[in-house]
Specification:
single chain; alpha+beta; OB fold (Dihydrolipoamide Acetyltransferase, E2P); 2 domains; 4-stranded antiparallel sheet; 2 helices; 16% helix; elongated
Length: 159
């Protein structure tokens, strides 16, 4: 069975190479990596999560009135936060400890460095992610059940 670090290294190597697709299977666990539109997408099977339903979302194209308006909005967004909480691994994002429980944090909540803000499930292990900074949650960037990549921003925090 591959370790998380080995999977991260494998993703980086495949991303840098001309290989478009890679799969590896051992002891009933299969890892398949496939490049799509310049990104590397990792899937693993069999994954059975009884507690959390997985929700796939289609990206929505953003229409802008003009480039100047879009630029002003991005400058304003950058000023609204000081820190991004990022995913330390590839996995599935969960905003609550279980489907019948309330989300760990909401926009406007105050957090400290050791506040658990979400769970990222990887290889059937549920990893609690902490805020790493004290401040206020100003934006939640992912939906419950969404697949996240290593280093992907999950939350924006105003210190």
């Amino acid at each position: 069975m591959l370790k998380i670090q080995e999977i991260h290294e494998l993703i980086e190597k495949i991303d840098e190479s001309s290989i478009d697709e890679f799969s590896y299977e051992t002891n009933g666990t299969k890892i398949a990596i496939k490049k799509q539109k310049g990104e590397t997408v990792t899937t693993q099977a069999p994954v059975q999560v009884a507690q959390h339903p997985v929700v796939q979302q289609e990206p929505v194209a953003k229409q802008s009135e003009s480039p100047a308006v879009e630029q002003n909005q991005s400058v304003q967004q950058e000023a609204d936060y000081d820190h991004e909480v990022v995913s330390p691994m590839v996995g599935t994002f969960y905003s609550a400890p279980s489907p019948d429980k309330e989300d760990y944090v909401h926009v406007g909540d105050k957090v400290t460095t050791d506040t658990v803000v979400c769970i990222v499930e990887a290889m059937k292990l549920f990893n609690e992610i902490e805020a790493d900074v004290s401040g206020e949650i100003v934006e939640i960037l992912v939906e419950n059940g969404e697949l996240v990549e290593y280093g992907q921003p999950l939350f924006r925090v105003k210190a």
